[in-house]
Design goal:
Blueprint lengths: L6 E7 L4 E4 L5 E14 L5 E13 H10 L5 E14 L5 E14 L13 E3 L8 E2 L8
Length: 140
């Protein structure tokens, strides 16, 4: 039986997108997205917990994120969870868990971030070819 590896995040960017290019010229953009959970504890105090998520976007979608998103903008992200390992400067093995985005949808008004931004795009199979979402069929 095949497994399911799917993450869905709705949150706000904690900083501006960071784009770089691989040696082969493929764009890759890193986003830092915060999600906040609010609840009331047993002392009847309201508590908020913020979790930070590393998001990686590839291809044309990465360029769209870099061009149209900015710190504070709300986004919807769908993708898969991936953990990578690397060695730091001291030679210690470290791990980084991130969400590799398949879909990024810009939420909120256009006043939140760059003007004239597309509202949604997808990065099919993260192959570096993002497609702008077509909202023309929606009557509102």
């Amino acid at each position: 039986m095949a497994g399911v590896n799917k993450a869905i995040i709705v949150g706000n960017l904690g900083r501006d997108p960071e784009i770089r290019y691989t040696q082969g010229g493929s764009p890759v953009c890193q986003l830092s997205v915060a999600t906040t959970r609010a609840y009331t504890n047993k002392n009847n105090d309201r508590v908020e917990e913020t979790e930070w998520h590393r998001i990686v976007v590839w291809g044309k979608s990465a360029e769209h994120c870099n061009n149209f998103l900015s710190k504070g903008r709300q986004v919807y992200v769908e993708g898969r969870i991936q953990t990578r390992s690397y060695e730091d400067k001291e030679g210690v093995k470290r791990y980084s868990t991130e969400i590799v985005a398949d879909t990024v949808q810009f939420l909120g008004g256009r006043g939140q971030g760059a003007q004239d931004s597309p509202s949604q795009f997808s990065a099919p199979n993260n192959a570096g070819a993002g497609n702008l979402g077509a909202d023309d069929d929606i009557p509102f």
